[in-house]
Prior knowledge:
Elements: E1 3-10, H1 15-22, H2 27-34, H3 39-60, E2 69-71, E3 77-79, E4 87-93, E5 96-102, E6 107-113, H4 120-127, H5 130-137, H6 144-162, H7 173-178, E7 182-187, E8 193-200, E9 205-210
Parallel strand pairs: 1-9
Antiparallel strand pairs: 1-5, 2-3, 4-5, 6-8, 7-8
Helix pairs in contact: 1-3, 2-3
Amino acid sequence: MKEVHSWCVSLDVSPDTCAGFYATLASDERNRSARLRFERDRRRFVVAHGALRTLLGRYLGIPPGAVRFVYNPFGKPHLSPELGRLKFSLAHSADLALIAIAEDGEIGVDVELIREQTDWAAIARCFFSAAEVDELKRLPPPLHTEAFFSCWTKKEAYVKARGEGLAILDEMPTDAVLSRRWSLYTLQPAPGYVGALVVEGMGRRLRQWPFRKEEGSRHSPNRTRLVSSSCPVGRANDS
């Protein structure tokens, strides 16, 4: 059975670790990080993208700095064609990142720190479907914030998997799942966070790990194949 992998990355690391990640980045990634206003955000960007390169390098058996990307017209990154069919997605919020990887089939992931969002209703009216807004309104007020972010991550993951820009943001991912083209997984990567992963195709096993920079970790993907008969760690809503 095919698998989809989700890696949870802590973004607050030592200066030496951050410098090691920075050394693997391409010039465009370094330029993007430099444009961020706050040093903390620049550092977290470097760690997230360095961790992505590190993981992809392990799956591909090449150095992180040798990973090359191309971008579709909407800015969605893919591996350069000569590197194969591996698909990936990266998301980060506050001090946490999620990296999702699948052997084939488009993929998207999103993560959000659950925080007070007083204007959630206005945001929902702008970007959510009428049915999603109604569902949120029916919930007790103490549940509004977490439910808002849960819905938002599902939509973001779906949009990123589609790779067609924000114009489809008002579509309902649950409807897309019912079309049986996509699988939707809800994630709880860490206390206070909520996430979602959408991948093309049905019936994949979801496996989740914390990211370790050291390649010798027992969770290294060198020992974790994307096609396996092992049991899923956490799976939801794929039919």
